[in-house]
């Protein structure tokens, strides 16, 4: 079965939805045990991590939302709150990969009382300075004026540069990613990608003050060959959270370790969580 078929099958088996302020939020719930809210990356479709989530669901309840084209961080936060309430989750491990790591830090700042542990995978500190706002505004403007096909190709091309998958599967992953970009995502999704980041920066949602009363564990998974990572990230995290963070070395598994080797990735994650 090709990867795109496996993604679609996973979505059919575990997909649920909730309508929140006129937006339909699709999400996936599977497994049993302690809850993990997993926030996917910039491709916006959690089912891309089907193999990783099915493996993780052997010992945990996994809840992972897709992202509709909303424009504010507040809409994300309300949606996460609602999904957790619907699913009866009161405490959880909060995880975020890449773009999802930014969302996870913002959600923790809002609702730290439900989060026992924070897992950040292939992502950086989200306390972006306002100097980043013009960059986000330029990206939003380009996404609005360029042809939609071009906009989606640019986003897919940029994300494919950092996606790491086994060489033998790369063609199938490219096929799956381009199919999702062309058939499921729109210009509004691309605008949302940048607009939500701009909203987070503008509102200064992620700051040391937001975490000063939260005492949960912080786990950072980082690969040596991930070009999005910086040696400054770990001390920056320590400053942001006010204490030392636990670092898990993923070796050469790259930016999308959950796709590159889902079994090994889950082994590393479960060892850390235990």
Describe this structure in words.
The chain has twelve helices and eight strands. The protein is α/β, with parallel strands linked by helices and 274 residues long. The chain has a single domain (3-128, 206-273), classed as Alpha/Beta hydrolase fold, catalytic domain (Rossmann fold). The protein has an eight-stranded mixed sheet, sandwiched between helices. The radius of gyration is 17 Å and the shape is globular. The mean pLDDT is 94.
**Mean pLDDT, nearest integer?**
94
Shape descriptor reads globular
Summing up helix and strand content along with how strands pair, one would put the structural category as alpha/beta
Level-1 CATH class name: Alpha Beta
* Helix and strand pattern: HEEEHEHEHEHHHHHEHEHH
User: Count of DSSP E strands?
Assistant: 8
Total domains: 1
- CA(first)-CA(last) distance: 33 Å
CATH topology: Rossmann fold
Low-confidence stretches: none
- How big a fraction of the residues is strand? 15-25%
Task: Please compute the radius of gyration using only Cα atoms.
Answer: 17 Å
Largest sheet: 8 strands, mixed
Which architecture would the CATH scheme give at its second level? 3-Layer(aba) Sandwich
According to CATH, the homologous superfamily is Alpha/Beta hydrolase fold, catalytic domain
Strand order of the largest sheet: 1-2-4-3-5-6-7-8
Q: Treating each run of at least 4 consecutive H or I residues as one helix, how many helices? A: 12
Helix content: 40-55%
């Amino acid at each position: 079965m090709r990867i795109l078929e496996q993604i679609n099958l996973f979505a059919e088996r575990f997909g649920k939805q909730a309508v929140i302020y006129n937006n339909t939020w699709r999400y996936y719930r599977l497994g049993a045990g302690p809850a993990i809210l997993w926030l996917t990356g910039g491709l916006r479709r959690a089912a891309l991590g089907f193999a990783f989530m099915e493996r993780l669901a052997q010992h945990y309840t996994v809840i992972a939302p897709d992202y509709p084209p909303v424009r504010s961080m507040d809409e994300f936060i309300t949606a996460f709150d609602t999904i957790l309430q619907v699913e009866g989750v009161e405490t959880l491990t909060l995880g975020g990969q890449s773009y999802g790591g930014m969302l996870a830090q913002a959600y923790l700042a809002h609702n730290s009382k439900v989060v026992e542990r924070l897992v950040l995978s292939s992502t950086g500190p989200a306390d972006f300075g306002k100097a980043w706002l013009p960059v986000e505004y330029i990206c939003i403007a380009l996404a609005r004026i360029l042809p939609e096909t071009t906009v989606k190709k640019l986003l897919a091309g940029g994300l494919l540069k950092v996606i790491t998958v086994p060489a033998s599967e790369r063609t199938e992953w490219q096929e799956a990613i381009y199919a999702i970009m062309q058939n499921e995502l729109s210009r509004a999704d691309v605008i949302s990608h940048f607009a939500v980041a701009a909203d987070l920066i503008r509102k200064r949602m992620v700051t040391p003050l937001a975490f000063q009363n939260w005492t949960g564990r912080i786990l950072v998974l980082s690969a040596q060959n991930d070009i999005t990572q910086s040696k400054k990230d770990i001390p920056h995290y320590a400053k942001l959270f006010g204490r030392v963070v636990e670092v898990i070395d993923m070796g050469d598994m790259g930016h999308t370790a959950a796709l590159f080797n889902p079994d090994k990735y889950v082994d590393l994650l479960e060892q850390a969580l235990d």
